[in-house]
Structures are given as structure tokens and as C-alpha cells.
Amino acid sequence: MSLNLTPSSERVHIAFFGLRNAGKSSLVNAVTGQALSVVSDVPGTTTDPVKKAMELLPVGPVVIIDTPGFDDEGSLGELRVQKTKEILGKTDIAVFVKDIAKKMTNAENELISVFKEKNIPYIIAFNKCDTVTEAETKNENEIAVSAKTGHNIYELKELIAKTVKTETSKKALVSDLINEKATVLLVIPIDKAAPKGRLILPQQMVIRDILDSGAIPVLCRDSELSDTLGKLNAPPSLVITDSQVFGKVSKILPEDIPLTSFSILMARYKGELQTLINGAKVLLSLKDGDRVLISEGCTHHRQCGDIGSVKIPAWIEEFTNVKPEYSFTSGGEFPENVKDFSLVIHCGGCMLNEKEMHTRIEKCISENVPIVNYGILIAHTHGILRRSTEVFKDISL
After folding, report:
1. Going along the chain, which residue ranges are E strands?
2. Fewest C-beta in 10 Å: which of 56, 110, 200, 353?
3. The pLDDT value given to residue 304
4. Where does residue 336 fall: left (phi above 0), alpha (psi -120 to 50 degrees), or beta otherwise?
5. Largest interatomic CA distance in the chain
6. Contact, 35 vs 29, CB < 8 A?
7. How far apart are CA 388 and CA 317, in angstroms?
8. CB-count exposure of residue 356 (10 Å: 0-12, 13-18, 19+)
């Protein structure tokens, strides 16, 4: 996949944190070699997180995030600090920018404590080292830099790259489930919700992973599934379908052919599959009026028959014979407090990076709120959850 075409959700998210006027924006511009952020001597110039998807050598494709000062004041300042805290939920690597000439403050100590609490690997960049006579650092994750003179900027990028390689790992999407030369049949419905002229991101990612593994992807619509199966010389090793047509595909597909969905694959790739499967078990204990949150990681124009706001509620009510009360969120919006919900139903999270998806799941776990994803819920309500997860050897129903 070209670095320029790598989706933001698959890029390492590197966020710069610190107090106002510590030089965060100047350091971001120095590290990227671009004027991404407005720089000023006036404290609080950065009022909202600034994000930029780019290639940062020697790391590769990344998202660089410049955040408002963690010590911002006033009612607007509190909102900016809250935005900064939200960024922590999607941060893979944190760069804590510290004015080398000043003592640590309570706000800075709090920030480092949050890094540790959330298990975010971090680097302390002591900025403005050109203003002091001595600039010594004590630990491996510390470095003295100057955004103004460029001192140690190259070394900072190398340290970021080293931290990325140490702390991040990539899980397999589908390649560990198939053998080289295997035929994998992808069933992709084309309806009103399908983007015109292109495939959605999970479909693209699965196809690429199949190709990279040396297997053979075969694509068809659900309306041509029977014809496609008849034209194959041998049954496919695996069938992957869009969750919306799970029931239809399962009826057509012989029982001895493994079946799963793009959404379930994304649940394993981005989240915690067993936790999400456990969340499906709560469906039958729902009662009339229970609050259910349905959350999508992307933003799109909701159409008639939308899966999140229309189809999933209908499937839930048909399966449980109860009528819950639904709330909906999309994009970066996710409640700070989920404890008032009886169940959270989340999309596959293809537009969220792994860190943010885990943050949302962990928030539910910490508040004892079950969470399930679209594909798992749909398979459960159609009576095919066991079949659609048999391909995974390390989960239990």
C-alpha cells in the first residue's frame, strides 16, 4: 500500500503535548519540516488539535497531532484541555514538550501520570536548549532539542522511530487464516449505502491482505453468489461477506465452507474479539426502555435503511421482542460516561486507529458496560454466530 494512500487509521499517531508556550507548535514544524501549526509568542495560539497525515522518515506513514496547552485557562481553555485529553485516547506515541529552563509544574506531572496510566509510550523533549548553558538528560526517553536552531531534531525523529518499533505491533487481518494459493471469496453487496465507484475501507484492506499473503481473492455481489460458487473449480477456503447480507449468504453457502464477515475481522484486528462476543450475550437480557448506544467511527449521510440507525435496531427488536431506547454517535464523538447504557454497539472501527478503538472498549469494560460490534451482533441475531466465528481458534461462545 502506498505511503500516500495509507489510511489514517493505519498510521502511527504521534501527538505533541505540553504547556502553553513550551514550543510544541514550533517543534512540530521542525520535526515535520512543514509549517503545520501557527507559531506565536502569545500563549494559547493553538486552540484546537491540529492533525496532519504525512510521511515522517524514518518512521513511515504517520498522523502528527499538535495539541492546545495542557494548562489553558478560562471556560474556553477548559474545553481546549478536554480536547487535548480526547487526543490521548488515540495516541500511539506521545512527545511531551518541556521548556528546559522551567521547573516541572503540577499540570506537567499530571500529564506524565496520564501517559503512564494509559500505557502510552512517551518521549520528553526538553525544548529551547539553546537558551541554557547545560542541557543534560537522564533517561533514554529524554532528549534536549531546539526547535529554533534545529539542534537534535534529527535525533528526536530517530528516537520516535525507535519508540514506534519497540511499542507498536501489527496483527493479522485475515492472512493468518488462509494458506498461500487459497481461494477466498468476498461477497460484497452493492446497494444505496455502497459508495459509488469504490469499495469501503475494510473491503480494500482485506483484499490487500489476501494478495500480500499469496492467496487468491474472488469477488462477487450477494445476488451472484450461487452462480459464482458454481463456476469455481473447488470450494473456496473461506468466504467473507458484508454483515448486512449474513443471513442470505449463510443460507446459500454449504455448511462445510468457513464463513465470516468484514466487520468480525475488523473486530479481531482493531479490538478485542472475545470481549465483543461476550457483549452479544447481553442481547436477550435487554428490557423495554433500556438505553443502547450505537456508535460509528466514521461520519456519513444517513440514508433510508441505514445499517446503524435503522437495520440494527430492527434486528435487535425482532430477536429480543423488546424495544430499547437508542442513542447514536459518529466520528470522533463518543460519550465520556457510558455507565448509563445497558449495551454499546460499535461499528468495525475501520476509520479509527487501534489505540482509539481499544480506548473505547476499555472505557466500557471499566464501567461494566457490555460492548459488541456490528458484525458479531448481526451474526448473533441471525443465528449464525457460531458458524461465523468457527474460523478463529482462540475464542469461546
Report:
1. 12-18, 50-56, 60-66, 93-99, 122-127, 142-144, 183-187, 216-220, 238-241, 259-261, 291-296, 325-330, 343-346, 371-373
2. 110
3. 46
4. alpha
5. 77
6. yes
7. 22
8. buried
pLDDT digits (tens, 9 = 90+) for 369-378: 999 999 999 9
| Residue owning grid cell 449521510 | 301
24-68 per-position pLDDT tens digit = 999 999 998 877 655 445 455 455 688 888 888 888 889 999 988
C-alpha cell at 344: 454499546
Rounded to 10 deg, the angle between the 354-366 and 262-270 helix axes is: 80
| b/e per residue 193-209 (b: at least 16 CB within 10 A) | beeeeebbbbbebbbeb
Closest to 202 (Cα-Cα) out of 277, 260, 272, 275: 260
d(C-alpha 205, C-alpha 348), whole Å: 13
Report residue 296 as a C-alpha cell.
Answer: 460509528
Cell of 53: 497525515
The values of phi and psi at residue 151, to 5°, are -65, 125
Task: Give the C-alpha separation, 347 to 5, whole Å.
Answer: 22
CA distance 146 to 151: 5
Q: What one-letter code names the amino acid at 72? A: D
Task: Write the pLDDT tens digit of every residue in 94-110.
Answer: 999 999 999 999 989 98
Closest alpha carbon to 351 in 13, 66, 7: 7
